[in-house]
Amino acid sequence: xxxxxxxxxxxxxxxxxxxxxxxxxxxxxxxxxxxxxxxxxxxxxxxxxxxxxxxxxxxxxxxxxxxxxxxxxxxxxxxxxxxxxxxxxxxxxxxxxxxxxxxxxxxxxxxxxxxxxxxxxxxxxxxxxxxxxxxxxxxxxxxxxxxxx
Length: 149
Description:
mainly alpha; 0% strand; single chain
């Protein structure tokens, strides 16, 4: 699927925007994951990354929130502001995702994105406060796509 979307992006950039739609209810997480994947590939394409990097960004986008499997649904679906404790728990999802990804043997680039998609260039992100080039390109791309969506 990622390969097909990447091929479309490389040939007809406007077409792919039709895949991106707002989700409703339980579909929110599904659409967010797809949107981050598509947006990541669009950003990588516009940065003139190679085909392999574009596909890696797309695949990583699909898995970036893998760690949310370990977060209770009550926190993920909460519409009111999260308490400090709930936010702290949610902020653990990159680490949970990294552990799951390592266990199932996902490629390093995907593990890196799962671990670092909430890191920010100025070092104010989480979980490790990485700065600038300490964050690999796919992680930086995924962070932008995640916030944009």
